[in-house]
Design goal:
alpha/beta, three-stranded parallel sheet, Spore Coat Polysaccharide Biosynthesis Protein SpsA, Chain A
Length: 227
């Protein structure tokens, strides 16, 4: 669970995820403080003290989501690894269904597909258009068998991450795209499963983020020609 500047929500969110998985055997929850400058780390550690399966790790300077997930992976030992954004825009109550689908499909990566939740009135029209355009471009450039790459809920076989995570060059928003492209290039299998967005989770994209996405997508594609 990568976290950045979530001091007001992180404790409740940790409690919520821990309650969902409380009865699962051998489960770990790793919360990564991605160089937060507020009290996220302290609040997370206080919440973790009530749940033996929760640990909090981090570093002093912000690295971006990709950097946080690479750091978190250093501390997990399970054969199935789940990425879940700490803001819980994707409610953790859907984890059991999502992981049952992961086991049924027996793929290396299962990507949450939120497009069913991106309906008029819940998600801005511009964001829906940009998401569809991004998906189309990535399908053409990388031949991925999934339409969505950026959803903050994914499940992986550990072996797929061990082979690809150390090679990643991207730490920002398009980290997910490079990870999936590398798994695919290495012969890994992947699929999508529908996920539900939390009410009120429609977030806009700044011009700087759009520029970063476009720039990094081109960089990943160019680098992929030499993988």
């Amino acid at each position: 669970m990568p976290a950045y500047q979530l001091e007001s929500a992180i404790a409740a969110n940790i409690d919520r995820v821990a309650n969902v998985v409380a009865d699962w055997p051998s489960v770990q929850i790793v919360v990564i403080d991605d160089g937060c400058t507020d009290n996220t780390r302290r609040a997370a550690e206080e919440a973790a003290s009530a749940h033996p399966m929760v640990s909090v790790v981090g570093y002093p300077v912000n690295r971006g989501k990709g950097g946080a997930l690479k750091e978190g992976f250093r501390y997990v030992t399970g054969q199935v690894v789940v990425f879940l954004d700490s803001d819980l825009d994707l409610p953790p109550e859907q984890l059991p269904t999502f992981l049952n689908e992961f086991a049924r499909l027996n793929v290396d990566a299962l990507v949450g597909a939120k497009r069913g939740s991106m309906t008029s009135g819940r998600y801005p029209l511009l964001r829906r258009i940009l998401s569809a355009t991004f998906a189309m471009v990535n399908r053409v450039l990388f031949r991925l068998p999934v339409r969505e790459t950026q959803t903050g809920l994914k499940a992986f076989k550990r072996t797929a991450l061990e082979e690809t995570l150390p090679k990643l060059d991207t730490a920002g928003y398009t980290f997910d795209l490079e990870l999936l492209a590398r798994i695919r290039r290495a012969g890994g299998s992947m699929a999508e499963a529908p996920v539900v967005l939390a009410k009120g989770s429609s977030q806009g994209l700044s011009l700087s983020t759009l520029w970063e996405m476009g720039r990094d997508t081109v960089k990943i594609w160019w680098s992929s020609l030499r993988w």
